[in-house]
Amino acid sequence: MPYVDRGAAPHTIVSPAARKAILQRMLLFRRASLERLEKLAEVDGATLQAYRRELRESSLPETLLHRGAGAPFARELPQGALLYLLTRAVRPARVVETGVRPGYSTAWILAALDANGAGDLISLGPGPVTGRASGVGNVSVGQFVPPALRARWTLALGNSEERLREVLSKASPVDLFLYDNGPIAARARFELRAAWDALSPRGILLAHHVEANDAWREFCARQGLPPQVLDPGPPPMGAIAVRSAG
Fold this sequence. Notes:
alpha/beta; Rossmann fold; disordered N terminus
C-alpha cells in the first residue's frame, strides 16, 4: 500500500501556485530515465506504471512539503520519486546511503520499503552542505523523514571512512547503495569501491551529482562501461547493476 500520513504539521508556508508546482515536480518523470530504470531493475513498464499510481495516491509529497522540502530542493525533486520506483522494483533487503542530511532521498526510499513490507535502510551522515542548494544547511538531519516511516531506518552518525567500513561490514550484503556524500573526489572513489565490494549479486550502486568530479567516470571505466547515467538531472544520477559489469 502507498504511504499515507495526514498528521504532519506544516513546516513551511508557500503560495497555492508554488505548492502546486512543487508537488507536480516531485512526481515528474523523464521518459528516458524510466526506460533506463526498467532495464536496470529488470522490471516491466506496466509494473512501473502501477508504482506511479501509488505515488499519485500517496500523501508523501504533501508530507515532504510540509516538513520543509520546498524551493531549495527543487532541482532534486523528481529524483526522489525515481528512487521510490527503483526501490519498489528491486525490493532490496538492505539499503545503505551516505551523505544524508535533511533526509529527502531517505523518505522516498523508506516509503518504498514500507510499501514492499520488507527491507531496512542505514543512512550515514550528516553529509556535507558543499555543492548543495541554498537553504539545505538550515534544516536538521532527518527532518524530512516522518515518524511513521522510521521503523525501518537506522541513522548512523559519523561521516568517515571508518564509520562506512563499520556499516558495510555487517553480515548481510547490500542490495542498494546510494552515494550522496559531496563533491570530494577521494571520498567518492573510496565509497564507490567499498560499496561495490559490499553489494549482493543483484545489487545496484547509485551515485548522485556524478558531474562533481571524475570518480564515477573512472569507476564505470574499471567495470568496462561508459559512464552510466540513470537520470540526467541536473544534478545527474548514475546507476550500475552488479550483473551488468564486465
